[in-house]
Amino acid sequence: MNKKWTSAIAVILPGIWAVPAYAADTHPQPVSQSTLSEQDIAALKQKLIQLNQQIKLQQQAINQMAQQVLKQEALSRQASNTNVTSTTQQTPPPPPSVERPSAQSSQQAVVASSTAKRKKTPDRARSTDDVLQEAHNVFSRKFTVEPSFTYSYYSRKDLILRGFLALDAIFLGNLNLDRIRTNTTQLDLTTRYTLNENWQFELGLPYLYRWTQYDSVGEGNSSQRYETAKISGGQIGDISGAVYYRMNAESVDWPDWVWNVRVRAPTGKDPFGIPLETSDSGNLTYPTEMATGSGVWGVSTGFSLAKTFDPAIVFFNLNYGVSFTEEFDDLSGATGLSPGEIDLGNYLDYSVGLAFAVSERMSLSMSFNQRFYSKTKQRPEGGEWQKIPRTDTNTANLGIGATLALSPNLSMVTSIGSGLTEDSPDYQISVRFPYRF
Questions:
Q1: Which of 55, 113, 135, 150 is most buried by a 10 A CB count?
Q2: Coil, strand or helix at 196
Q3: Based on the structure, what is the number of domains in the chain?
C-alpha cells in the first residue's frame, strides 16, 4: 500500500477513536457549575485544545486523500485516451497557428456571403419573368422557343374632295367618303439562345395574313350606296435577328440595363409596284395584292431598363431605327413602270410598363408604347427627292396583359392593346406561348 495512504489512515483513525472516548468521560453525569474547580476547567480547556488539533490533522489527511484520488483519475483518463489514439490512428489536429487563419477565412466568407445576400437582386416570380422577357430580357433561360398569335383590327375613314370652292362658300366637284378596314393575323416563331449571363441572341420568323375591305360612297352616282372591294392574302413577313448585351446586372441600387441591336431583312412582299384597279365609277381605287413586308433593310438599336420592386417590376425601353435606301423597278401601281429609289425614313419609339406577380404562376402587366415615323421620300429615276404627304405617322398603344404558367417549362402570355391615335390599330390581341428548355 502507498505510504501516503498509510500515514493518512494512521492520523485519521486515532482521532476518530478519541472522539467517542472523550464523549464517554465528559458526558455521564453533569455537575453543577458550583462544584467545578479551577483545575477541572483547565483540564477541559486542555482537552478542547487537543481535540481541535486532532480535527485539523484529520482535515489535512482528508485533503491529501482527495488530491491523490484526483491525480489517479487524471492518470487513468490520459492512459485511456492514449490507447484509443494508437488503435484508431486518427490524424492529429492541426496546430493553433493553422486553425486561426482558417477561422479568419471562414469568418470572412460568412461576411462576404451576407453582403452578397444584401446586394442580391430580389427574387422574381416565374410569371413576371415571362412578362419581362417580352418587354426586356431574361438571361437565366438557356434556350427558348416562343410561338405567338397576334390579331389586330384597323379602320380609317377619309373624306376626299375633288373640285374647288366658288365664292369661298360653294364647293363644286365630287365628294367621296372612303373607308378602309384591315384585319391582320400574324403568326410568329421566335427563338432565343443565351450564351452566358451577358449575351443573348434572337431570331424571329413571322407569317402574315391580311384581309382588307375598301368602301367608297358613289356607286351609281348615289350618295347612300357604297362600292366595295375585298382583298386578302398571306405570305412570310420580314425576318429579323437581334443581339442583346447586358451592360449592368440588377442590384439593390441599380436597374438591369440591356443594350440591343436588331436587323430586319426584306423577305416579305414589298408594297411597291403592286398593280392597282379602279371601279367602274372611278370612285374606288385599290391594290390587287397584299403587302407583308417593308421591302428594304432596316437596323435599330437602343436599350432597356428594368428594376424590381418586389412584387412589381418597372421597365423602360428606348429605340431608334433607320431604313436603308433601296431601288425598285416600279414605285407606282399605275400602268407602266416608274423606276426610282425609296427611303422609308427613320423612327423613334419608347415604352414604359409595370408588371407585378399575383402568385408564382400568375402575373399582370400594363404598358404604354409610342412610335414616331418620319416622312417617306422617293426619287424617280433622274429626278429629285420628294416627300410623300401623310407618311409621317404617330402610333400609340395602351395595353394590359396577364401571364399564366401552364407547366414547369410552358407559359401563356396574353395582352390586349387599344390604339390611341388615328395611325394606330383600333385594338390588338396577342397570345404567346414561351417554352424554355
A1: 135
A2: coil
A3: 2
